[in-house]
Amino acid sequence: MPFYWQDREKDKLMVLRVKDSKNEWNWSGGFDITTPQTLTLLIRRKNSSDFLPIEEKVVSFFRVVIFKEKEIYYISIYQLKEKEYPYELKNNCKNFNLTCKQVDGENKEHHNNLSLKLMSTASMPFAWPFPNKPPEIEVSFFFKNQSEKQIPIRKIFNLTKFTKRKFKITNKKMIYGIEAKYSVDRTTIKLEFEEKIELGGEKTEDNEDVKKCFAVFFKEFGISLIAKNKDQKNIELGYIYMKVIIFLDNF
To answer: Could you tell me what percent of the chain has a pLDDT over 70?
Structure first.
């Protein structure tokens, strides 16, 4: 269907919402459709808790591909399947439960950005509630054996910078060393949290071990087929031009 801007004074951002006769869903965060790109996002069902049980379908994941032909922008929207999620958060800690949310100071009350609970030794998929915002998540660490009123330890993680981090959390006389590390499984970036009980050391520290990563993608390219004629001169038999639509996550 064609789409056009009804009010040119407002920001040119598109939002999505799931149409469901049984349940009401929140709107996604806005995203720019005037620039060719690929992005992923999640949309939450209204009145859902901050747990993320995929089997109950309280959250849906989508990939949006935007490309331009001549003067027209095309927006293709796909619902992601289980093995196509862009990110996976894994809590391997035995003594901590976690809550995770995208860092977004301007939309603290937005219901699509409620914290998602990640229980001990569990994992969950993740995508951005606000695709146009910085790719950072806030992770809060809660001791399992304490009340929910406890003050959590909060850390910020960037899912596009593969930065291995270590820090310590103390509880009475016990010191827990927490390690956050990244890995890649096909198209999914995984962020895992490991726990190690320590007997000594400083109260809190934050060490970073930066790993540099890069990738090269060809969006357009041409291939010329060259051969020699009877006079041993090079002649062009043909030219192949290819234009590729890149289905990548907009980190």
So the answer is: 74
CA separation for the pair 131, 50 (Å, rounded): 20
Report the candidate in 158, 161, 160, 157 with the shortest Cα–Cα distance to residue 178: 157
Q: Which residues pair with 44 in a beta bridge?
A: 59
Q: Which tokens in the block code for residue 44? A: 């939450």
Strand partners, 128: 41
Is residue 51 a contact partner of residue 116, using CB atoms and an 8 Å limit? yes
pTM for the predicted model, two decimal places? 0.71
Give the whole-angstrom CA distance, residue 123 versus residue 52: 10
Closest alpha carbon to 169 in 198, 121, 203, 146 = 203
Helix, strand, coil % over all residues of the chain, rounded to 5: 5, 50, 45
Place of tokens 């970036």: 189
Tell me how far the alpha carbon of residue 70 is from its chain's centroid. Answer: 30
State which H helix or E strand residue 76 sits in. Answer: strand 72-79
pLDDT digits (tens, 9 = 90+) for 191-232: 999 998 876 544 444 544 434 444 455 556 667 677 777 777
Mean pLDDT of 107-117: 70
pLDDT at residue 237, as a whole number: 66
Whether residue 77 has pLDDT greater than 90: yes
- Give, for 32, the enclosing helix (H) or strand (E): strand 31-32
> Which pLDDT belongs to residue 201?
47
User: How many angstroms separate the CA atoms of 97 and 143, rounded?
Assistant: 6
Q: Is 1 exposed, middle or buried (0-12, 13-18, 19+ CB in 10 A)?
A: exposed
State the pLDDT at residue 202. 46
